[in-house]
Amino acid sequence: xxxxxxxxxxxxxxxxxxxxxxxxxxxxxxxxxxxxxxxxxxxxxxxxxxxxxxxxxxxxxxxxxxxxxxxxxxxxxxxxxxxxxxxxxxxxxxxxxxxxxxxxxxxxxxxxxxxxxxxxxxxxxxxxxxxxxxxxxxxxxxxxxxxxxxxxxxxxxxxxxxxxxxxxxxxxxxxxxxxxxxxxxxxxxxxxxxxxxxx
Length: 199
Known about the structure:
The protein is built from no helices and 16 strands. It is mainly β. Among the domains are: 20-83, Sandwich (Immunoglobulin-like), CATH 2.60.40; 88-159, Immunoglobulins (Immunoglobulin-like, Sandwich), CATH 2.60.40. 13% of the residues are buried. The model has no long low-confidence stretch (mean pLDDT 89).
């Protein structure tokens, strides 16, 4: 009697994961395109996860191996790249006297810039330097060619001008004296005779 052998070919999952590029600090998630019995994510030879999705926090080539209940395995690779953000720095606070202005120059290694107030870009303010003549909160945004922005913020206050009243002009006789009081206690003073006190 002739023997008949039956061969069963178990299907292999066609797994596919995509290369991903994001700005540094931006959360990303890579997800298997197939449902499997077992998932194994690796970075180099190190196993980093055993779930359908994985959220890498460092750049590198990640391998996803999927396995069916029958033990059939397949894998794919994805290159994860994190693009650097520029540095940007401006003072945290600033102030100017009413009627004047405050000139702010930021520090950055970026190559494109813009200033914002109330989350709105300020027309024409596209350099590291901006002249502020209105109190408020200002943001300097720096990018590399428009990508991966980083920001810093300054809160600007307008100070009122002091009111100085020395009274009416007076004529003094020889050896007479008078005390002039500039008011505004706590301020700095510069009299025409070189004195620096309030009175």
